[in-house]
Amino acid sequence: MNFTNAFSLLSDYAEPYAWFPQSASTFSETNDWLYNWITYTCLVFFIPIVFALVYFSVKYKKPKGTKAESNVAHNTILELTWSIGPSFFLVGMFILGARAYLDQRDVPDGANEINVQAFKWGWTMDYGSGVFHPELHILLDEPVKLSMRSTDVIHSLYVPAFRAKKDIVPGRYNYMWFKPTVANERVSDAELAAAVKETKDLGETWNYDKHQFTPDGYRFFDLYCTEYCGTNHSEMQTVVVVHETLKDLTDWISANSVRPDGTPPAEYGEKLYKNRGCAGCHSVDGSKRVGPSFGGLYGRDEEMTVGGSVKADENYLRESILYPKEKIVAGYQPVMPSYKGQLSDDDIYSIVEYLKTLSSGDAAK
Amino acid sequence: MSAGSIPKGSVVRDPGYPTESENYLTNSKGVLSWVFTLDHKRIGVMYLIGVTLAFGFAGLLALLIRLHLFQPEGAIFKGAEANNYYNQVFTLHGAVMVFLFIIPSVPAALGNFLVPVMLGAKDVAFPRLNLCSFYLWCVGAVFFIAALFSTGLDTGWTFYTPYSTTTDTSVIAATMGAFILGFSSIFTGLNFIVTINTMRPPGMTWFRMPLFLWATYSTSIIQVLATPVLGITLLLLIAERTMHIGIFDPEFNGDPVTYQHFFWFYSHPAVYIMILPAFGIISDLISVHSHKRIFGYRFIAYSSIAIALLGFLVWGHHMFTAGMSPLTTIVFSALTFTVSVPSAIKVFNWLATMYKGSISLTTPMCFAIAFIFLFTIGGLTGLHLGTLATDMHLHDTYFVVAHFHYVMVGGTLIAFLGGVFHWWPKMFGKMYSEFGGRLAALIIFIGFNLTFLPQFVLGSRGMPRRYATYDPEFAYLHQMSTYGALLLGVGLLVALVVLLTSLVKGKKAPANPWGGATLEWHCTSPPPFYNFERAPVVGDPYDFSNVEWDDENERYVSTEPERKLVPGETPEAVPAHAKDTH
Ligand code: HEM
Ligand SMILES: [Cu+2]
């Protein structure tokens, strides 16, 4: 069952997917070529080595006490050959690797710039003029530069389909760039509607792995954090969507820019809760995660680490979002990043309204 | 089957068997005679038990990791704390394997037993320091276990800042443990350097040392030079955590990448502390079990030293994506490729040694052959990682995990097992079941490849390392790997059972069961507590021309042509031991 699948995966040579994820940027072509070339070069050495190993073990296996056929101690020419010979291949690998690497460090002029903020455990992409979103949306065949910073520990942004990776180190800006060469399609409206309805019925957050498209109906490439960053490191994932046309991209951005007219604040607040990384640390069902649960939070008396308690009213909630290290609830660590400058007043208002819906009537008084 | 014959008229040299009062295992009795022993052999045996326990513990944790990864959403740990438990388990697995098992395994356990005996000496230069190293190891181990049972450690064995300065787990206990273990390692290294420099017997010039001693010597140099840097780094880390001195934590104007430089400046050389002794073991195993002079002795010896020195210059390759300047990055890539040359040289030399030899496929030889296969894969995949462009894709994925397991497990662990099977008769005076030993080697070989080959594919397909849960498309390969790990576990268990039953049921071991020519085969099995009555005559360690198989007693013996007992009329101008040079 699983085994046969795994082997067909390994043996399926013609299918590039066997060794690599889909190739979707200008880097992936170079990378895959170089990777294969190194692998074949290695095989040129490995196969004869293994052949010799096995052949000698069989051919020269002798009964105990037999003397060796030869006792040659060294052969300088032979030894120099096998010391120096492989070096040519090594120089080749070094040069090709370094050239392609410089290409990855050299951002072309006119690349679109997106600011990326990494935090425990999520991502915020800044599309300018107050539009933030956890997904990375970019344009086909246009180079894009990411300026990345971290608010807490080291993270690393990795898109396997682009073969690109860069650490995000707190205390400095790190940058990377790439040029996507494959656009992501949209699924049909019917399929999207069914998935949205199913998610809503189950009362879950959107499951990217299960549906294999975003809540807006786009197929995507995976984006992972690859520098170990603590408890939920493995959940620090998001997606990259490559849009085919500029219009499609700007439409998506403006659709996400502000609270659409007519959307109730609480409903929009729920969306922000799921999208902006709150859900990574705060549950809504009362269970304790990295941060206190939002279930019943509004109106509750919170015990502080410094002693005393504070009633969780609108102002407390607002302060906790903008200056999270000011008041720490007993039993938790000051690990939450500040959302100052990343949420508009209306966003905060919407979130607070959403939190109110999570408390029963009495407590909210 | 035998073709051995002892030439007529030659004198057989064989020390026979030790009496109970000579045997180092039995010459004094009681727990205290072990606790306060200064005998390097007993200290070696205690280390062997210690590192085996550490390995068993960390091995069980490894199985837990693999079982958890059997399913994308995690199969073992459930609930809100699942990820947290997973992180603690992989941290402890890595830290115990590196600091408590691999680093001390060959140098401290086998090295302690063998270095003085191979030198024909009675003990190491500083026996008390040696015992002290062992107890430091024990204290360090206690700190590690304490870290587990207090709040758990979840930083990964690398303790990267600023995660390690901000997490509320017991980083300080664990770093104190690593600090103390560092001293244990420094003392052992110091002891071996002095021992090898000053206690070689007459006639053993540098180039007449067994290659195991060369490897131990180069390892010791790294231990003494690199480990203090780890010590300083860990102290700075503790200072940063407790006093916020502002060196590693950006919140206080420190730089986390500085920590990585400090850490890898030790830890890269440390990977050579792990592999060089393994090279030494394999050089000796291949030569002895092929009954043939080692090919290219000097190239192997020099390449050990070259690796020890070059190993200090390549630490930056662990940080290619961390944001060093492109120039620095490229220089480190170039230097990285230079280390691969001396490793390749050794592989070719081992093969040339087997060529036209007289190979016995004994258990140690099976491990040595497995080693060459696995280490070659480990070394070659280092090339994908040393090449900058491909490392951008592969860094911090399962490809790296597979690469370093091929060198550390496929390399060091397999060599260690080969060494244990090779010197077991010498250490305990018992022969084990050859069939059992070879079976264990086979199961381990298959299990290991099944565990780690799929991980290369996982990595190049983009699976990040240190993930407690993962995307469903990686599940098949993870499951293959888990089956492999279980098989590997079975193989290791078989090896353990084979060795332990030999202690009870094994046949008495002769002084020289394999036909080795180095000095440890010239004393009884097990050696007497004083090793040698007087400094033995040193021959060529790889000259097998007068080692003969004695079929009747199932042992190898050294023979020499009959000598006239009455000296000649005129004394010889050159003493006999200085004449048989090459
Ligand atoms: C031909 C020789 C070798 C080359 C060219 C090589 C190259 C590399 C490179 C470039 C990396 C960094 C990859 C990355 O993090 O993206 C790496 C990682 C590693 N290598 Fe090697 N290597 C070689 C041999 C060894 C040996 C002999 C050992 C140990 C016995 C070893 C142990 C490790 C370990 C432990 C890591 C991962 C460390 C970590 O990130 O936790 N390597 N190697
Ligand atoms: Cu992260």
What this model shows, in words?
By secondary structure, chain A is α+β, with helices and mostly antiparallel strands. Helix content of chain A is 39%, strand content 16%. Chain A contains 11 helices and 12 strands. Chain A has helices at 2-11, 26-59, 76-105, 189-202, 208-211, 246-255, 265-275, 278-281, 314-322, 345-357, 361-364; strands at 112-119, 122-126, 132-133, 136-139, 144-150, 155-159, 164-168, 174-178, 221-225, 237-243, 301-303, 309-311. The model of chain A is unreliable at 6-14 (pLDDT under 50). Helices cover 62% and strands 3% of the residues of chain B. Chain B has helices at 31-35, 40-68, 82-118, 127-149, 163-166, 171-198, 211-243, 256-289, 297-310, 326-354, 363-386, 388-394, 398-428, 434-460, 475-505, 576-579; strands spanning 10-13, 430-431, 507-508, 547-550, 555-561. Chain B is mainly alpha-helical. In chain B, helix 3 (82-118) runs antiparallel to helix 7. Chain B is globular. The longest helix of chain B is centred in the first third of the chain and has 37 residues, at 82-118. Chain B has a 3-stranded antiparallel sheet with strand order 1-5-4, with no helix packed on it. The interface between A and B is large, with 99 and 108 residues. The complex binds protoporphyrin IX containing FE and copper (II) ion.
**Rg from Cα of chain B:** 25 Å
How much of the sequence lies in strands of chain A comes to: 15-25%
The major beta sheet of chain B can be summarized as: 3 strands, antiparallel
Largest interface: A-B, 99 and 108 residues
Biggest β-sheet: strands ordered side by side in the sheet of chain B? 1-5-4
What is the N-to-C order of secondary-structure elements of chain A (H for helix, E for strand)?
A: HHHEEEEEEEEHHEEHHHEEHHH
Give the oligomer, counting copies of the same chain as homo and different chains as hetero: heterodimer
Helix content of chain B: 55-70%
| Estimated structural class of chain B | mainly alpha
Instruction: Give the averaged pLDDT of chain B, no decimals.
Output: 88
Write down the Rg of chain A: 28 Å
In the CATH hierarchy, the architecture of chain B is: Up-down Bundle
Number of helices of chain A: 11
Query: What characteristic shape of chain B results from the CA principal axes?
Result: globular
CATH topology value of chain B: Cytochrome C Oxidase, Chain A
Overall 3D geometry of chain A?
Answer: elongated
CATH class of chain B, anyone? Mainly Alpha
What's the CATH H-level homologous superfamily of chain B? Cytochrome c oxidase-like, subunit I domain
Low-confidence stretches of chain B: none
Structure annotation, total helices of chain B: 16
Q: Please tell me the overall pLDDT of chain A.
A: 85
